[in-house]
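Let's sit down with a protein and look at its sequence and fold side by side. Go ahead whenever you are ready, and we will take it from there.
>
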Amino acid sequence: MLKWVTLSLFLAVGALLPTQSFAAIDEVLLEMDGLYCPFCSAPTERRVRKAMDASSSEQWLEDGIIRFEIAPNTAFRPEAGIKKLEESSFKYVSMTVKATGKLSAASGGTVLEVPENDISFKLEDSDDITLKAKNFMDSATGKTVTIIGKYYPNPQNPKLPILKVEQAS
């Protein structure tokens, strides 16, 4: 009887504890022209953060970049952020995404699945990918990896040319 009570208690407590999520959009770097003054760019940063549903953001004025963190279980909505940016006086240049997810093979290539942020990226080689990263990617199907890549806005077919493979499990 004591075994059943202990097991029931263990299962009940385990169900209440938060589970750790390993797949997520870790950060988004939004590069833009015209980002010089923190007072001028702060309202745009807030609007873009809200549109992307980002949990936090910070400006790197010297690089012309705003860094966003996307919370787990939040849909990844970069197009909404780019639209808000284009409504301001700043010009969109590029977006770099750091995402952790599971690799899977799909017709036409490799896909990084990030279900916590409701997105799957079709991965592509880029001129900047190293041979070491390329060799790893060729044998990493089913593994969890962190990819840094340039995101090209296309909500129907999100592509992420790989710049760097950061870690694997």
Remarks:
- Confidence is low (pLDDT under 50) at residues 1-21.
- Helices lie at 2-16, 38-52, 78-86, 131-138.
